[in-house]
Structure prediction request, 287 residues.
Amino acid sequence: MGRALVVDAHVHFWDPAALRYAWLEQVPQLERAFLPPDYFLRGDEAADAVICVEADCDANERQAEVQLLRRLAEIEPRIAGIVAFVDLTNEHTWNNDLDRFAAMRAMVGVRHNIQGNAPGFCLGNAFVRGVQSVGDHALVFDVCATADQLLEVEQLVERCGATQFVLDHCGKPPIRNDAFAQWSDDLLRIAAHANVSCKLSGLFSEARAEQRTLEAMRPYAEHVLQCFGVTRLLYGSDWPVVTASGATAQWRSVIDGLTAAWTLEDRQLFYGGNAIRLYGLELHDQA
Prediction:
């Protein structure tokens, strides 16, 4: 089996000594610094390049997080892209933020979490116009939403036809509840929109411990592949969140098992080519 270039499309870096991430206080095993050396020293589990995604720090520190990620990207050339937070409910600030981000090297996308917000949040007029503006600035919008929000996400996509969307973590299917049917139907509706792609990532966080196996993940992964096809599917580890399940190497092993029978061309698209194309990445030669 030939080796594909690996671009991990979903990695987080943070340092609680520098910025406050309130949610980390509920996950003590993650409440420490996770920085590029920690990721890239992991050997075969690591990737040739990564996309670093904002990690929901406190609201008053959002700009500081952007600066932290930019500094890390300057030091570590394998950080090929940054997906940063922009407050898409604030019409007074988002255009300035998007103008700045679109001009920054390595800034490739925007994320403002839908997860955790009330029903209708992502369909508010300000938020919809904000997501439309993300597309106007030639940036990708990363969608972080839970399975019960996917119908609203599909309506958002309908209203933002010029924006490129990437769905994080397969829309967070409720695997631990064995609730496949509604999620699978809603995912199929979203995938009908050609401007939506999907990260095969984060599934271990939605599963019970005994479900973190190749066979338990297979129906979810195969449905995602059926919905989006290999040209709209991206590999992501969700590191270091995946470490909370104690199964970092296991996730990569599951993904390698799921793709073992694919052609080398399809693996090259999934593991790297699609991320490079969708986010417009420029990879740096490490030789």
The beta strands are 7-11, 49-53, 79-85, 107-111, 140-143, 164-167, 196-200, 233-235. The first strand starts at residue 7 and ends at 11.
